[in-house]
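S., here's the first fold you wanted:
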Amino acid sequence: MRSYSHDSKHYAKECITRNGRKLSKTKKMRNITKVVRHQESIQEQNLISDVNYLNCMASDGDSSDAEYGRKPNSEMHSVIVKIRVASMNLLAAVCRNLERHVVYGYYYMIFPNDSKDVNYNLIYLAKSDPSTHCRAAALQVGAQILAGSKIYFNQAECSVRRNCINFFPFSQSLGSMINVIYNTLFAILSTEASTFVLTQALKCLSVLVQATPFHKLETGIATGIVSHTRKLICHRDCNIQVAGLMVMEVLVSTSILTTEIVDIIGLPHTDSVPFISNNNQQVNMMSNELNEEGYEEFIETDESQNVYNKYNNNINTSESSWLLQHIIKNMDTDRQQSNVPASIYVKSINVLSALSCHFALLNTHLPTIVKVFQYALEDPLLDVQLNAARCLEKFSYEMSRYISNTSDFNCFKLTQTFWEILLPKLVVLISNSAQQNSAFKNYLCGSLANIGIVIYERLPYISKISLFSTLSGISNNSAENTIVRAAAIRALAVHVAFPSIRKNLVFVENTADMTLQFINDENLSVRVRAFWAMANVSDALVANFYVKERVSFDILTRLIEASKNACYDNDKVRCNAVRALGNFLSILTEDNFDNYVGRKMFNESIKKLAHCITSSSNAKVKWNAYYAVGNIFRNNTIFVVTEIYSDLEWQDSLYTTLCHTIVHHSNFKVRISAAIAIKYIKMRSYFQNYLNLIWSSLLAAVENSQDSVNLEEHEHVDNLQEQLCLAISHIIGISRPEDFPMLQKCLAEKAEIVSYVWLLVSNRMIPEKSVPLISCSIVLYERIKNLNQSTSDHLNAMVYVAKTLSLQEIFPCFNDVNTNFRFEHLPHQTSVIKN
């Protein structure tokens, strides 16, 4: 870099040299400020010249040195490589410390927008930089920036007619960017010789696949992914194979599959997996082209070549997906005998876990898959064991879900055999005290919880006894890790819900008693599982409520106290605790209220429920709390004993909280559950003096039901209005004649909006569900007809309510409240609906 003196003579010489002409000796020197500015501009030009040289040198390699007439300088080249790598690390650090939505605004500068865009960008460097380190660094930084961009890329789309429009929308531009990134990565995978760069390219590709909305883009991307990745999963380098399997794992795990992905991988076309139809002709053509490609470049043995030739012939059949065959080939024998690297073995297990979502593909391979689990669970390497146990937990869940929705007898038989073979192995592994890894046993307990009712009922009796003995033993083993014991309790609680098990009250009580051991554990995860299990036990007790044999009051009191105290715990604990508390209170009998202790416990429990509703910011806690309140209202005994014992003062706090939630809560699902709870109050006397409060709250909730500030709540508006109208119809149906003046007074203030919403909901609901709304006025007019002793105020109020909530096309004869109406004008359907 040149430096210039501020001396005027040197400045004059420099001007002569640079401008190619002499300066007049008599010319006066310029103003010093202008001189400095001129010098700074010259320095900036020289700096730009040097930077351009460095760019050309780094981009064109040795040819740039010859072009610029300079000798190759390996030391300078090394410095430039370090500068590029450091600059990319700086970009990564900046993006890491910025908010994600801020980084999105710079994507058009970091990534190319068009295939003709050859300017310097991250993906261009990954493809064209002469340095291996720079290419790898560019791919690493690109993967980091692309991570978590699914929300942003969901706006992308590619239209075939995009060249026919004058306006190029943002979504099309974003889709074009994704296509260019994919094409550049495909070019890297096709031409790159460095194994390290290939590995980074596959990792970057896997991140991009996770963020891509394939159903909005043109067909061909998935085929390109598979065609390039399928060759590399047979590469001689272990790391490349692992990275290739990672790409296939995330592709199979795509939330919305397209027919292109389904066909190119060989997945089954089932209704249980959402997928979008693409151009099938184009997909089939690309699949055929993929089948005709050779893979001898990366395949080393003739045996593996023959195997893959066999897979290529059946790429579109769900019975023999090439991906499933490949991972089974990696795992169907003992790893130590097959010499498969542990990293490939683990990644193959992960791919199997992803494929388990498509169980229709796997059910015919269960005899082979059960051997895979047997080998993997006994592998000496802990990482293999953990991944196999995690895979088994997910696999068993998907298998149970698939079995519950199918009627294929052969599938039942294969699944039953699967568990009969694997269950003894799992029992031994869980009971093995030498196995100290709690996560491994935790996953195995989760697998046992996922057996499912269909297969459980088909298991031999000895297998059932072995299952429950093992889980009960683990739960009561104080030497075992508490996380494992809690997982065992959770598995027992899952089985408690089975009809054949919940009838065994002794087993239910034992499970409940074991659950109480973990309610005060320091580990939050243990407490969450304990109260989830307790909630399941409470569901079983509610299902057995009408059975003569009842749970002992001592255990029931301990369960209520535990659930009540948990209402101040973490939200993850509280959402299950309030659900259990409501169930336990709903099975109380009149004998339980005979003593003061029982009544005090009930009052405190209701206050804790109300406190959870008002204090918690978690919507799930409040939703479960109102679910619990609804179960409490189902128990008529509670209302009966409330009228008997004056110290049962629970209605004020609960009704007030309920009404406030219906009108003002921001979450519409919570308001819906509160409205549903009101419908479980079956008699007018149960409302006592709170009918006015509840009625006015329902009308106010109808009035502001469309004032949703949050757009996410807008989809729940219809359901909320339906439940509010059903609750209004319920109150009208149980109200006495003397209540109607109050009902009329509140309704008159909001008659227009309530009548409009009532008519809207009646027309929107299906006929089976809209009967209470349609028949409300009919039944009310029938009640008016049958009244013998009522004042005119009562009659006029009842007529007003009936007229306001009637459908005009059904009741054209009632247009004036004060008109003497004739009952013979009532529709003939009145008696039918009433009956």
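And the second, which I think is the more interesting of the pair:
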Amino acid sequence: MEGHRAGPFKQRNKAHKSGKKKSARDLTNGGRVRTTSVSSLRSLSSKGGSTIARSVRKNQLAQLRKLKREEILNARRGIAVAPVLVAVLNLADDGINESLFAQRLESFDSSSKLFTSKHGSYIHIEMPKFRTSFQVVMLNKTDLYGALDLAKIADILLLIHSTDTEAQQQSEALYQLEAIYNHCLPQTVHGVFGLDSVSNSKEKDRVRKSILELIERQYPGTIDNGNTAKLRQLDSPQDLFQFFHYCSNVKRKPNSYCTRRSQLLAEEIQFEPDHDSQDKGSMLVDGFIRNTAFNVNSLVYVPEFGEFQLETVEVITNPYQSRSKPFPMEGFRDDADPELRPSLDERENPVETLYEQEMADLGDGDHNDLALKTVLATKVEKRKLPKGTSDYQAAWIIDSDEEKDNDEENEEEESENDDSEMLDVSAVTGGTLKKGKSVQFAPVDQVFDEFESNASGHVGDENGADEDGVTNGDYDEEMNMEEEESSMAKFKEQRMYELFPDEIDTPAQVSARERFAKYRGLKSFRTSTWDIKENLPADYSRISQFQNFNRTKRRLFKTEPCGTEPGCYVRVRVINAPRAMFEYYQSRRHNKPLVLYQLLAHEHKMSVQNIVLKKVSSFAEPVQSKEELIFHLGCRRFAAKPIYSSHTVGDKHKYEKYLRSDVACVATIYAPITFPPTPVLVYKQYADGQQVLVATGSLLDCSPDRLVIKRYILSGHPFKINRRHAVVRYMFFNREDILWFRPVELRTKSGRVGHIQEPLGTHGHMKCVFDDQLTSQDTVLMCLYKRVFPKWSYRTEGISAPAFLPINDEEMTA
């Protein structure tokens, strides 16, 4: 009996081509397969179809491991290696100070040598056992800006905890730790002093567990899960020795912003005045180059003072080492080339607008007004309009750049404030009314029930104080009524905006065609076109724009940095430096760290920055657009008044009046160009000097072409309904306004779409037709749109550090 024979219709599957697949992981930029990787060799050997002998494969794997090991060692060895920068933040008020910490460092290892820098009192430790040198800096609890500057370039952050977790939660250092955690958190190590004083082992385990729980609850992600000693004890010299051994071998967390730019922490500074002026001169800054090569032809940014040019970079002898042999690059000097060095003119003079040029061409004759009207009329006729724009919509486009933004904003604020007063106060309050105090309003019924129960059952003390120890008289004396009223108005306005977003009542005293002359209607907000070069403000003549921002960023990041190698101890000559900058950093009263940040190409020019921000949950006050805030963007600190928009994918983005708490928003400001990824912190400064964290985020891009569209919704109510036809009132109040806005499409809250047919009478009634019958409860809406731009409010002067309580003399001498 014969077996089964396959017929002509048998399914024949495609044969698997072993070893010939080119996945995206195995392809390089040139399109060639990486056959020299360890993974490819292992996968090739496991498929069974390989013709390479086993001994050859083992030899190739061994050679690849050796090459990878040599690459890591060469990166550590190099020509010179900068000391491992360890930033120490003491979270315990009863912990050790800087002098006591230095004494413990001197005694923990006899073979190590300690040095102290002239500026900043930084401690340098040379440890021959580990073939590594360390630089220990203590972060000042009362200096937020200095702590951030040091944490940005630090390799390791040591957090010293207290054995009393309740007292640690009230420490002033938590203010700095919150900013570092959200902005520039390096590799973190947790330590504790005073654990040996706890004699009981169970109590010691309880303290250790409570500290770890506090860290995981407030600052998750800072504990290295791969490290067995999550909380390091730093009492004995052996503990310190193990800590530095861990720091010499741990894999450091890279900073995405600082790894692409070079930095220099000043160890010593000098000032040489110019011959013609004593107020300006050259400042000599000594320090180690970190991260990348230091280019003498690039600009450097000094916090609080701005950008400066360099003249020379000279490699000098490292005073913090006991090496007998001279450094091979010692004496190397790199001079700047004036032709390659960029100019400091970051804000070019604005060019004349078309309107100003026409005014100059017309002259001062009597026919100026008539000629100007003729020129403007012809300019409207020759304007290139977006596709689908009618002649009626083209008449809305204003040719002059001179817009009356301030008058319009005042009118908008007055109208919105008048509308917000109609809302009941008890329905809109529900947040923080006073800075630093979280007060929430309960329902009225609940308040009266509690009042009655307290009046019948609970009785306070003789002075009328409650269980918290606060009397009614003291509470009223501490309250600032002006601040209460302003906070109440802000909360009421924000609540009104959340209930009725973008809705506004048409003013009855002002004609709607004049009030909304700069607004237009759109068929679809998502698909309708909008010319990005239309009616640009005069401030756009002062900024720079890239043809392709992402392409420029990739090209800069792929370029190999040239200059003095990182790790060298150099002396940098900063030219045209003011004497005030030298005195500011040299003063013992300030005791601020001086860090020179190298800027990439074009990062000194002004442009429009778009920043993605997420409001922190701890800040409950409303943040309105065009409200001045303090930005920490990369290495820069400045004040600006941003406008907010939705973080969406389309080409048009809706303007947000307030920074939303539920989703991320995009803030648009005028600021110097910066290439992402760049972390951002936003603070709000009060009149008493205190600063509170408002939002965190990152830089999106630097593009002036982002369309931020402001929407206004005019509402009307159906008066008479006849199937698909309806008479609508209260949207306009005169016949001319109805004829002006007749081409704009209408819609209702229930989803009906229609348009205006004709006005009825002279008091704002109009006949409309819709695609389906309306209901008497429906509301007729008309959406109007206008592009908005940020205000030129970039400011670096007067950005002072947040105010703290003064420190007494005992703490200063301790």
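Why I say that: The two ends are 105 Å apart (CA to CA). Residues 307 and 523 are 47 Å apart (CA to CA).

Talk tomorrow,
H.
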